[in-house]
Write a structure and sequence with these properties.
The protein has 7 helices and 5 strands; from the N terminus they run E-H-E-H-H-E-H-E-H-H-E-H. It has 166 residues and is α/β, with parallel strands linked by helices. 33% of the residues are buried.
């Protein structure tokens, strides 16, 4: 299993789909998976459950994915997934974790035209300051990944070395 982690806007879903297609792997976007199983949007789950309730739910779904998905699955995780409970530990034990590392400027550029509802970004007046703060909080968790790939000049060939060992 390959887990893609990183901040919102790093391209986890985009690169996850590309990797899965290029290497004939299955693809799971965790947020889409949870939304489908719960029959509602992630933003709604955040409103109903609060962040703490959502993170517990996310942890249970991660366990389920690890237990049931094939070894040849690429999983695009939610931005906060590795930072709660023992999620990162579970992912590291189950497969390869790739941190898509991005600058705040790159994130803002990717997010400015994004139509995805991202509950933690909703209503933030100073997106740059907010993203910097969240990145600082999550950095130590993200950097536990076996692989760190800067997203500035990323391409499918960037993943070749990692994929050859999976």
């Amino acid at each position: 299993m390959i887990f893609l982690i990183g901040m919102p806007g790093t391209g986890k879903t985009y690169w996850g789909k590309k990797l899965a297609a290029a290497y004939d792997h299955e693809f799971i976007d965790m947020d889409a998976y949870i939304a489908k199983k719960e029959k509602t949007e992630i933003a709604t789950l955040f409103e109903i459950e609060g962040e703490e309730g959502f993170r517990k739910m996310e942890n249970l779904y991660l366990e389920r994915i690890i237990a049931t998905a094939s070894e040849s699955t690429v999983i695009a995780c939610g931005g906060g997934t590795p930072c709660f409970y023992k999620n990162m530990e579970m992912m590291l034990e189950a497969g390869e974790v790739i941190y898509l590392q991005s600058t705040t400027a790159h994130l803002i550029n990717n997010l400015k035209n994004d139509t995805t509802q991202r509950p933690l970004l909703k209503g933030k007046n100073n997106m740059e300051a907010y993203l910097e703060n969240v990145l600082t909080e999550r950095k130590q968790d993200y950097e536990l990944a076996q692989h760190i790939l800067p997203t500035e000049n990323i391409s499918l060939t960037t993943f070749e070395k990692i994929m050859s060992h999976v």
